[in-house]
Amino acid sequence: MKPVDAVVATVSSLPDEVVDTIGTVLPSEDSVSERRRKLKFLEMQEELIKEEEKKKEKEEKAKQKKEEKANLTEQEAGEEDLALKEMTGPTARQEEEIILAKQHDQEQLCNISRTLAVLASASSVSKERQEFLSLVNKEVDAMLEN
């Protein structure tokens, strides 16, 4: 392979951007064509910069949308929790009814425990029985004396 062919093959395998960059650095026979090449190169670079800026803007917008969506999701979750608490929690009237029912239940338990204490106590029953027997004996004695 001839050296010229090798250079041509090598240059043709390079990306267009690299070839254009090399073309702007090489001296030209004509200053007008050199300036045109440099202008074309600068325009191409400017287009690449604009494309990169657009890409960054799109990424930033996507990031902002994602953040906004996350914020909205958090707010909605908080609102849903509040709504869920309101729906599942008792209302003020229901709470009052529950409190009254608990108080009534406590009173009933107290009465039942007092009654059970009286019934379980053998002394209270035996006392009454003794008084009853003594009254009966007095009546019997009073009848016998008459």
Can you tell me about this structure?
- By secondary structure, the protein is mostly helical.
- Helices cover 90% and strands 0% of the residues.
- The protein has 5 helices and no strands.
- Helix 2 packs across helix 3.
- The chain is rod-shaped and about 165 Å long.
Write the layout of secondary structure elements.
Elements: H1 3-13, H2 16-25, H3 31-88, H4 92-120, H5 122-145
Specify the helix fraction band. over 70%
Question: What letter string, H or E per element, gives the SSE order?
Answer: HHHHH
Number of helices: 5
Q: Ranges with pLDDT <50 over ≥5 residues?
A: none
Counting copies of identical and different chains, the oligomeric state is: single chain
Structural class: mainly alpha
